[in-house]
Write a structure and sequence with these properties.
single chain, 19 helices, mainly alpha
Length: 449
């Protein structure tokens, strides 16, 4: 997805293309929603109120599509299953109306629609729809007073749980959106990048930078608003001690936290931001059920990663299998035998044995069965038995029937003649015994067939 910024994004013309609205970041959609439908014509859009109303409706529909999944997860904590969607849609409709009628130019905080889920559930609790709410929420709402959390109306004078929320409010709006989408809601890089108007590859870096800005804002506010005037001297030690798990202890900081409740609470908050930022921020920014909402978003993100990993493994599994082995083509051997009938039986048998050995090595390359004989004791293969006629009673030992003593057999003569034709000279007679016939192992016969 190409990198986009609010100032660079061209305004879609009309509602004919859904992709034009889907490419806009959230800030651009909110800006379109705040454009009055009866405003005078400008250079960026059609000049009639009807066309502007269509553009506003398209921007609202795209914003609802992006915010609804998280609203459903949060509304599931407030209402019974049959009424979860109705509660989420009503809160989302109120959020769009607030954006349309808000006089301020600064957009609302990213978690504003979720705050309206709690506010809408309170309205249901005082109406005929009370029976559609969960028992846990009703038990909590009956013993609490209405207060709009997440947006403190006055600055806290001491360190308490609201300091995390106050530090979050001090961040720029883009940093708030980065923290909310990537840390609390755990949106994937593509979804978060679309909402923030940046390339998905930049999302991990922006997440780390936003969390660091939140930590620094918390430490700064803690030093400024602590009751003890000596607390700001321990700010650097406090920040270093909570940056990573297993940090070296500091005796001075430990003695100070033993008597200072504010620094002890700040140590706990910063440790939580470092170890479980999503749960800490959700509990600080949402009025009720923040930790449960963060856990639900964490489970959903884990399932999405598992599905993506499974699809990726299924896509690459077929390429890991070995290709089917194919027996070598021996048709050339038959052609050579027909072309040169004088080729000896010895040469043909030798070629067959070599081809069979090569085939055996080729096939056994992927064999994972039992190991063969060890190299020290090679396996012996008995030659294929050939039928030999019994010698005549008067024949000398070592001669076959019909063969004179001291003469070569017909096969031997053909062998010698073939040698002379191939080498082109008269061979030197050798007294070494000549093997007349060769037995071909059954495996070669089967492969040749």
């Amino acid at each position: 997805m190409p990198r986009r910024h609010q100032a660079d994004v061209p305004e879609p013309k009309g509602t004919e293309s859904a992709h034009s609205w889907a490419d806009l970041p959230d800030a651009a959609l909110i800006a379109r929603l705040r454009t009055p439908a009866t405003s005078p014509p400008d250079d960026q859009g059609p000049g009639n109120p009807g066309a502007r109303r269509k553009r506003i409706a398209a921007a609202a529909a795209e914003l609802r599509r992006r915010r609804l999944p998280a609203l459903l997860d949060y509304a599931a904590l407030f209402a019974v299953e049959a009424s979860v969607r109705a509660l989420a849609l009503e809160a989302l409709q109120r959020a769009v109306l607030d954006i349309r009628t808000a006089p301020d130019t600064e957009p609302p905080p990213p978690h504003h629609p979720l705050l309206l889920v709690e506010d809408t559930a309170r309205l249901w609790a005082d109406s005929t729809r009370r029976g559609e709410l969960s028992a846990e929420f009703l038990a909590w709402v009956d013993r609490t007073t209405h207060a709009f959390p997440g947006l403190p109306s006055d600055q806290p004078s001491s360190v308490d749980a609201g300091l995390v929320s106050w530090a979050y409010q001090q961040l720029p709006h883009q940093t708030q959106a980065t923290v909310w989408h990537t840390v609390v809601q755990r949106d994937d890089a593509l979804t978060a990048g679309l909402s923030l108007g940046v390339h998905p590859d930049r999302v991990p870096h922006l997440r780390r930078s936003a969390l660091e800005d939140l930590r620094q804002a918390y430490v700064r506010l803690h030093a400024e608003r602590s009751d003890n005037g000596h607390c700001h001297y321990f700010s650097s030690l406090l920040e270093a001690a909570t940056r990573r798990i297993g940090a070296y202890p500091n005796d001075d900081l430990d003695r100070h936290m033993a008597v200072c409740h504010g620094c002890s609470r700040a140590h706990s908050d910063l440790t939580g931001v470092n170890a479980r930022p999503g749960a800490v921020l959700a509990a600080a920014l949402l009025p009720w059920g923040g930790a449960a909402f963060a856990a639900a978003r964490r489970r959903r993100a884990g399932k999405a990663r598992s599905v993506a990993d499974s699809e990726r493994m299924r896509g690459t599994a077929g390429h890991a299998l070995p290709r089917a082995e194919k027996a070598p083509d021996l048709s050339w051997l038959r052609h050579a035998a027909r072309k040169s009938p004088a080729v000896s039986v010895t040469a043909a048998a030798g070629i067959l044995v070599a081809a069979a050995a090569a085939l055996q090595l080729h096939v056994s390359g992927h064999n994972t069965g039992a190991a063969g004989p060890v190299p020290g004791s090679p396996a012996r293969t008995a030659p294929h038995p050939t039928a030999t006629p019994p010698p005549s009673p008067g024949a000398a030992p070592g001669t076959a029937e019909g063969t004179k003593p001291g003469s070569r057999s017909s096969a031997g003569e053909e062998h010698a003649a073939a040698k002379r034709r191939v080498r082109g000279h008269t061979p030197v007679r050798s007294h070494a015994p000549v093997v007349e016939t060769f037995g071909v192992p059954p495996s070669c016969n089967s492969e040749q067939k």
